[in-house]
Every structure is written in C-alpha cells, then in structure tokens.
Amino acid sequence: MIKFLLKWLINGAIVVAFLTYYADATFWNAAIAATALTVIAYLVGDQFILRTTNNLFATICDFLLAVVYFGALSYVFDWELSWGETFFLALLIGVAEWVFHRYVFNEELRVSG
C-alpha cells in the first residue's frame, strides 16, 4: 500500500501542476485525473506488466498510457492541451515511472546500516 501511495503522490504532483497550468483545469479535476491515472497505471503497469516483463517495457507502456489518457481527457473535457504538451506530460510521467520502478519496486534494493 505504501508503494501505491508514493506513486500517487509523485504522479499527482506532476499531473496536478501540469494540468492546472497548461489546461486551466481546476485543482479537483486535475487531482481526480491524477488519481484515475495512478490507479490504472498501478493495476495494469505495476502489478501486471512490470511483474511479467522488465522496467523498460513497463515504462514505455506507462508513457503510452499517459499519452492516450491525457489525449482523451483533453478531448472529452475540452482542455486546451496540445499534442506537444500531452507528449511532454507523458514524458515526465514516464521518467518518474522509470525511477519509481527502478528504486521503489526493486525488491533487491536494501538499505545498509
């Protein structure tokens, strides 16, 4: 559960900041969008894809999920997100996911001391 909460905080910070600035979304709409993305990415990306493949493939899937997800939200809610902004937001999410997979979901990572 702590891994999900950490993922939610990281994704939430990126998504809420980006959507409130670029898409003029309200804080609550951006927070709901971030929460839904986190739930989908955690269930599909972390619990299924990451366990059956590797970090690179799971990160690419998270990136593609974010592109499709924010493209669809931009269309449905009439947010003024360009494809470049959508791509950049997905890229930020992808980088955060790669770091998250690499250092948080890595079971071999141990703290010495």
Features:
mainly alpha, 4 helices, 113 residues
Entry summary:
With 113 residues, the protein is mainly alpha-helical. The protein is built from four helices and no strands.
Explain this structure to me?
It contains four helices and no strands. The protein has 113 residues and is mostly helical. Helix 1 packs across helix 2, helix 2 runs antiparallel to helix 3 and helix 3 packs antiparallel against helix 4. The longest helix has 26 residues. The protein is globular, with a radius of gyration of 14 Å. The model has no long low-confidence stretch (mean pLDDT 88).
Lay out the secondary structure.
Layout: H1 2-22, H2 27-52, H3 55-76, H4 83-103
Helix pairs in contact: 1-2, 1-4, 2-3, 3-4
| Rg (C-alpha, Å) | 14 Å
Percent range for β-strand residues: under 5%
* Oligomer type: single chain
Helix % is over 70%
The 3D shape can be described as globular
